[in-house]
TrEMBL record:
Name of the featured protein: Amidohydrolase 3 domain-containing protein
Cross-referenced InterPro entries: Amidohydro_3, Metal-dep_hydrolase_composite, Metal_Hydrolase
PANTHER family: IMIDAZOLONEPROPIONASE (PTHR22642), PROTEIN LONG AFTER FAR-RED 3 (PTHR22642:SF2)
Organism: Acrocarpospora macrocephala
Span of domain Amidohydrolase: 111-445
TM spans (from-to): none
GO terms assigned for molecular function: hydrolase activity, acting on carbon-nitrogen (but not peptide) bonds
């Protein structure tokens, strides 16, 4: 995917680099899969050999987006099951909306070949939305085999971070001792892999789902005194955090409610430097967290892995159930102000995953089925939303030195948009189009004639 030994190519178009040292440019040059220059047209030309090819592009270049919480392989199986051949990204979005509650793969346990076929099917559809990377947040052993086989065949065009999931209570790992034994026996840990496929932190569940009333809260859900579901005992969490911190593993903890967030934060705060080094995460973390816990999590270096999609789908129901208590749900503003690294994802394909919708949602705080937004005290700017999809998500992917911005030396993962997301009117964000997506200097998506989002891509082997 890195295009070794390729000569430099200059692209001339407005560039939103996401690099705080040089936020905007007029051109960039790419060679051997990496950015070699960013700047004015003259500056970029001066860095490449005379006669290097130049391409003037109609659009605006941004770094490739990274979905920090995307079940891509399951999304590929759903594409095989529910999408017609030749369908484009818009049709995929609609098919996933229509089959929201349906199984990933209705035909039973998928074969390895079906897993690879699903990845081949879904990646162009996600590239058509501007994605060049994902973090798959709960990868089973069979899913890991699917990713590895796709990578072996050269069919993995999406840079993928796989978060292993070993379910305590299952036949394979009946308790925490079995989970620890499995991790210990692999001989690898978080960070192992390459720029295409890498192991991330492990995934655990500390509480349940918000809309089902399972999030573990400080205050009761109702007059019965019920505060939610705790899915992992404190002693088990203590032992797992200690093991991971000492053995090179990170942890991504599903923690929706404030009490679960507090529990995880207390344990993570004991893990020292491993929290930053191995990208410990609080995942979802959207319902009634206390400021003291947000601040402590940020201080420790915990990544806030947040999904505007969940509150888009669940916001109205939470408001009906909790009233004013739901108004600040998904407090992205508070997480940013606390100093945390925020990484945006979608929990797709089960929740909405179109980044145009989710950036708009994070700015407007609108929720599906209601004209009234949630509290605008938690709204963020378009620049902050883009940073969560690029800089923050790259950091969560253990790739902050190579992805998330366009700077010399970084991987040439970039997207040509129809207009500049940072300057269009807020309601125009949802109408932006991806015209071209490049991963490592290779075109993985190009819009059809007329600009319709489609799947005209360079095929994989």
């Amino acid at each position: 995917m890195n295009g070794a030994a390729t000569p430099p190519v200059v692209y001339i178009a407005p560039v939103v680099t996401m690099d705080p040292q040089r936020p905007r440019a007029a051109a960039l040059a790419v060679a051997a899969g990496r950015v070699v220059a960013v700047g004015s047209v003259d500056e970029v030309r001066a860095t490449v050999p005379a006669g290097a090819p130049e391409h003037a592009l109609d659009g605006v270049i941004l770094p490739g987006l990274i979905d920090a919480h995307m079940h891509m392989q399951r999304g590929g199986l759903k594409a095989l099951a529910y999408l017609q051949d030749g369908a484009d990204a818009d049709e995929y979005i609609e098919a996933m909306r229509r089959t929201f509650g349906e199984e990933s793969w209705p035909g039973g346990e998928p074969t390895l070949e079906q897993r690879v076929a699903g990845l081949r099917r879904v990646q162009p559809l996600l590239h058509a939305l501007g994605f060049t990377g994902v973090v798959d947040p709960a990868v089973t052993i069979e899913e890991m085999r699917g990713y590895q086989e796709a990578h072996r065949r050269g069919a993995l065009t999406m840079r993928t971070v796989a978060m292993p999931y070993l379910e305590p209570g299952s036949a394979a790992t009946p308790d925490i001792d079995a989970v620890i034994g499995h991790l210990e026996g692999t001989g690898v840990s978080t960070g192992f892999g390459d720029d295409v496929l890498r192991l991330g932190p492990i995934k655990i569940y500390v509480d349940g789902e918000g809309l089902r009333g399972e999030a573990l809260l400080h205050e009761p859900w109702n007059e019965t005194g019920y505060r939610g579901l705790q899915r992992m005992a404190d002693d088990d969490l203590d032992r797992l955090v200690r093991f991971c911190a000492e053995n090179g593993w990170g942890i991504g903890a599903h923690a929706v409610g404030g009490a679960a967030i507090a529990t995880v934060t207390r344990r993570f705060s004991t893990a020292g430097a491993a929290v930053r080094e191995r990208r410990f995460q609080l995942i979802h973390a959207y319902l009634e967290p206390r400021l003291i816990d947000l601040t402590e999590a940020a201080r420790c270096g915990v990544v806030a892995s947040l999904q505007p999609s969940i509150i888009w789908h669940n916001g109205r129901g939470l408001r009906e159930r909790l009233g004013e208590r739901a108004e600040r749900a998904n407090p992205v503003r508070s997480w940013i102000d606390a100093g945390a690294v925020v990484a945006f994802g979608s929990d797709g394909p089960f929740f909405a995953f179109d980044p145009r919708l989710l950036i708009w949602q994070a700015i407007t705080r609108r929720v599906d089925g209601s004209q009234r937004p949630l509290s605008l005290d938690e709204a963020i700017t378009v620049q902050e939303a883009l940073a969560a999809y690029t800089i923050g998500a790259a950091y969560a992917s253990l790739a902050e030195e190579s992805r998330g911005m366009l700077r010399p030396g970084m991987l040439a993962d970039w997207v040509l948009w129809s207009a500049d997301p940072t300057t269009v009117a807020t309601d125009e964000l949802r109408a932006l189009r991806v015209l071209r997506t490049e991963v490592g200097g290779r075109t993985v998506f190009s819009a059809r004639k007329g600009g319709k989002p489609g799947v005209d891509v360079v095929g994989t082997n």
